[in-house]
Write a structure and sequence with these properties.
This protein is an alpha+beta fold. The protein has one domain: Sandwich (Jelly Rolls). The chain has seven helices and ten strands. The strands form two sheets. The chain has a seven-stranded antiparallel sheet with strand order 1-8-5-10-4-3-2. The protein has a three-stranded antiparallel sheet with strand order 7-6-9, with no helix packed on it. A hairpin with a 5-residue loop joins strand 2 and strand 3. The longest helix is centred in the first third of the chain and has 20 residues. The structure holds 2-oxoglutaric acid. The site of 2-oxoglutaric acid has 10 residues, from strand 5, strand 9 and strand 10.
């Protein structure tokens, strides 16, 4: 489902913008559900906030927080990109909302866990990859994700905290776009200088041999699992559990 030129861009740059992939109605519903979950978790005193002044917020375990998210994470073109990078048996590592509230500072460039914890040289093939879902237009002003093209080939180096790199660029695009990012690319969210929250989803995937960030087989409720498609069950890790204990 990826064209040869899309595959080439992923190989060469380490990221690929799938512009306007998600229909406008779905994007609007995803945004509304995401902000409503973020608000409920704040009201319940259970919110995960981060960055200075709690200006950014994550909502975890989305597969268990609405059918719209169960469906979203199976988006065929996004999954084709993940399968190209991570193998056809790749697993969902985590699916989260990421809200940057007005004033959220630049989060700094990083590579994704667990690559950041590995000895160097890191593997020269993708181990984890993220899909950043633009539920708003992502702009230079509201915190569009920054990437350093080709940095996934720097197998020994890590971005220096606070450094600005000349080849770093913000990936802007209309709401409904999905940015595929090899987890080894130096990337991160930027400052939100506007007075409107920048809402995104992060569908983070890993090779099936890795331990996912969230243990979906324990965290997702039985009702979701019982109606899950074979694809969703596979993404939640049911097929990658070793079957040696019976
Ligand atoms: O929300 C974004 O723009 C990127 C988030 C990110 O880099 C991450 O969670 O690894």
């Amino acid at each position: 489902m990826l064209t040869e030129s899309e595959k080439d861009r992923l190989d060469k740059d380490g990221f690929l913008l799938l512009e306007s992939l998600i229909p406008p109605n779905t994007t609007a519903q995803l945004r509304e559900c995401s902000l409503s979950l973020a608000t409920s978790e704040q009201k319940a005193g259970k919110s995960h906030t981060y960055l200075a002044n709690h200006c950014a917020q994550r909502v975890w375990n989305l597969v268990d927080k609405g059918e719209i998210f169960e469906e979203a994470i199976q988006q065929p073109k996004m999954l084709a990109a993940m399968e190209y990078l991570l193998g056809t048996d790749c697993t969902l590592s985590s699916f989260t909302v990421n809200v940057l509230y007005p004033g959220a500072p630049d989060a700094g460039l990083h590579i994704d866990y667990p690559l950041s914890a590995l000895p160097t040289p890191r593997p020269n093939f993708p181990m984890v990859a993220n899909s950043v879902w633009f539920l708003d237009d992502f702009t230079l002003e509201n915190g569009a994700t920054s990437c350093v093209p080709g940095s996934h080939r720097r197998l020994e180096a890590l971005p220096e905290p606070g450094m600005e790199y000349a080849d770093e660029k913000q990936i802007c695009g209309p709401r409904g776009s999905v940015l595929i990012v090899n987890g080894a690319i130096w990337h991160g969210s930027s400052e939100n200088k506007t007075n409107i929250p920048r809402v995104g989803l992060l569908g983070f995937f890993c090779r099936s041999i890795l331990k996912p960030q969230q243990a979906h087989s324990n965290l997702v409720s039985d009702s979701v699992i019982s109606r899950a498609t074979p694809t969703l069950k596979r993404l939640l890790g049911f097929d990658s559990l070793p079957n040696m204990n019976t």
